[in-house]
């Protein structure tokens, strides 16, 4: 099915502004707060997408994509593929539209995310990580019907995420850099599409964990690469086994660089965010802060996208306990 897709294209400001109006009643305009770290640290602001109704940014893209489905495409409901946050976003938007929703979900996803998808009315089809990744490429899964909403390689999904970029520029007009965690690439493509269109001098940085950093490798090699040494970790919402060629085509013109952080740096960022801002964020949501603290993105102002807060509380508490100095 991938061969029949139209080539990846830039997302326009007109699409982003239209998406903003379209999702206004579903999504929250999330706050941008300064992280008070004292002297010797970069100037960091946190974009708190963990405060969306599903506690993750994916609602922006899902709300826009579901709203734009034609009547004929809605007739059999909608489905998506997800490790948790995209599934919640599509389920939430589908419920609001009165549509049935199925999520082909990664069986090792955090229990909290699986339970939240079910609570939103989604039917779950649990599969292995490899099967889900293959289904993302095929855009199909045996026995699952309805309008497929790709969780990152979809123009309407990306345009929804891009609305975040408009808010960032309004709330932090002095921003010098924005850092986004990268999994499939839809978040950074969206945010960068808005930011670069309005202020092209702002740097866009990707953040990945050391256990799953195919985009950093792809940038270094100049082409989409696989990451065979991939390992599962508590950073379940970012990183992948490879970069999809279409997503590399989308990201490459917009992203200025990638910062790879260790799992320990991510844990420390998670703890710092909890201590200094009283924010509970999942692993992927802490990658940008961990990246900012390396100094590679400069002294700021840096906006770090806190992409979500859907983490099992036992895992969160274990990390807090383990990082006590």
Walk me through this protein's architecture.
By secondary structure, the protein is an alpha/beta fold. The protein has two domains: 217 residues, Rossmann fold (3-Layer(aba) Sandwich), CATH 3.40.50; 90 residues, Rossmann fold, CATH 3.40.50. 42% of the residues lie in helices and 15% in strands. The chain is built from 13 helices and ten strands. Strands 1-2-10-7-8-9 form a six-stranded mixed sheet. Strands 5-4-3-6 form a four-stranded parallel sheet. The mean pLDDT is 94.
Write down the overall mean pLDDT.
94
CATH topology of the largest domain: Rossmann fold
Strand content: 15-25%
DSSP summary: helix tally: 13
- Overall spatial form: globular
The helical percent reads 40-55%
Structural class: alpha/beta
Terminus-to-terminus distance: 51 Å
Number of strands: 10
User: What is the class of the largest domain in the CATH system?
Assistant: Alpha Beta
Largest sheet data: 6 strands, mixed
Spans of at least 5 consecutive residues with low confidence: none
Radius of gyration: 18 Å
Total individual domains? 2
Instruction: Give the H and E element order.
Output: HEEHHEHEHEHEHEHEHHEHHEH
Assign the CATH architecture of the largest domain: 3-Layer(aba) Sandwich
Q: In what order do the strands lie side by side in the largest sheet?
A: 1-2-10-7-8-9
What are the salient characteristics of this protein?
six-stranded mixed β-sheet; 15% strand; globular; 13 helices; Rossmann fold; alpha/beta; 325 residues; 10 strands; four-stranded parallel β-sheet
């Amino acid at each position: 099915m991938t061969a029949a897709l139209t080539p990846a294209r830039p997302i326009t400001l007109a699409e982003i502004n239209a998406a903003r109006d379209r999702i206004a009643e579903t999504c929250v305009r999330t706050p941008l707060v300064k992280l008070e770290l004292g002297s010797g640290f970069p100037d960091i602001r946190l974009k708190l997408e963990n405060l969306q109704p599903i506690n993750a940014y994916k609602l922006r893209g899902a709300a826009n994509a579901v709203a734009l489905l034609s009547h004929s495409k809605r007739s059999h409901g909608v489905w998506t593929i997800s490790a948790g946050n995209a599934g919640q976003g599509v389920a939430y938007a589908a419920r609001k539209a009165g549509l049935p929703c199925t999520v082909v979900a990664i069986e090792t996803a955090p229990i909290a995310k699986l339970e939240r998808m079910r609570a939103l009315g989604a039917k779950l089809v649990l599969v292995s990580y490899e099967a889900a990744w293959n289904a993302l490429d095929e855009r199909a899964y045996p026995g699952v019907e309805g309008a497929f909403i790709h969780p990152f390689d979809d123009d309407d999904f990306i345009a929804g995420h891009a609305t975040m970029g408009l808010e960032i520029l309004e709330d932090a007009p002095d921003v010098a850099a924005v850092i986004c965690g990268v999994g499939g690439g839809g978040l950074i493509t969206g945010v960068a599409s808005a930011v670069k269109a309005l202020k092209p001098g702002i740097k866009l940085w990707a953040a990945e964990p050391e256990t799953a950093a195919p985009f950093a490798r792809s940038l270094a090699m100049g082409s989409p690469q696989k990451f065979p040494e991939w390992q599962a970790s508590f950073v379940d919402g970012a990183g992948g086994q490879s970069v999809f060629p279409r997503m590399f085509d989308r990201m490459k013109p917009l992203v200025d660089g990638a910062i790879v952080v260790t799992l320990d740096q991510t844990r420390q960022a998670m703890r710092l965010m909890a201590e200094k801002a009283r924010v509970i964020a999942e692993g992927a949501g802490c990658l940008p802060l961990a990246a900012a603290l390396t100094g590679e993105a400069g002294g700021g102002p840096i906006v770090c996208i806190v992409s979500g807060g859907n983490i099992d509380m036992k895992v969160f508490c274990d990390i807090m306990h383990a990082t006590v100095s």
